[in-house]
Specification:
Blueprint: E1 8-13, H1 20-34, E2 40-45, H2 51-59, E3 63-67, H3 84-87, E4 93-96, H4 99-104, H5 109-121, E5 125-130, H6 134-138, H7 142-154, E6 162-167, H8 181-197, E7 205-211, H9 219-223, E8 230-233, H10 240-253
Parallel strand pairs: 1-2, 1-8, 2-3, 3-4, 4-5, 5-6, 6-7, 7-8
Bound molecules: 2-phosphoglycolic acid (PGA).
Length: 254
Amino acid sequence: MKNKSYISTVVANWKMHNDFNAALDLVIKIFSYCNMVKNVEKIICPPVVNIIPLYDQFKNSTFSLGAQNINENSKGSFTGEISVNMLKNYISHAIIGHSERRVIFNESNHTISLKAKALLDNKIVPIICVGEPIDVYKKNKSVDFINNQLFEIFSEIQLNSEIVIAYEPIWSIGNKNPADPIYVEKIITKSKDFLCTLKHLRNTNLKFLYGGSVSSKNVLDYTNQKNIDGVLVGSASLDASEFGKIVLQISKNG
Ligand code: PGA
């Protein structure tokens, strides 16, 4: 067990799964497994249509609600998009820059930087995803790649508030091929050091999570590392008992 001065964070990213009834059912089951856990920060990010209908369930729970994405503009002619303003009364966090959004929807570091700014302006904590593709990993260029992502995302943000960064190597997502915890610790340590060199971030409360095929079997291998402050969970967060085990194990050990 590591001696932490803060509590670990677990984020559930449900992606495009669960209509309202299934989402409600899953929330009730997850709460029955681990709503009593107070020494782990727990954030569930359902599809956006379920955020407001689920809000009442979360109000008296130990869980927080988050979004999976937001638009960087406050309003306007952006068909199909949702602004922070529309969600800010219901969420405390929002994932931005997930690799699925970068790859499928062509989001750039610049767009992600604007999204982070829009969230911070509204006092919502951004969960900023970074991570390298397999070819970069194989060439041993991950540190440079991630530092560049961080540099471009953070160059325009002036702040001294809370930010979460999720390191998710693209090759480890959704395929039962989790990254080696020692490798993740190395990348996160270097990323933290790099961000400390950006002067305007000195007072920022930065947490670093790992994401990519996290399960109840491997979660402690990550959270027991010195610089890994929690996990972002995709597929395993759709199974209440599995997600409950992840939270309970961190609560006891990580
Ligand atoms: P996974 O997804 O846990 O299913 O690998 C993680 C993510 O995409 O955030």
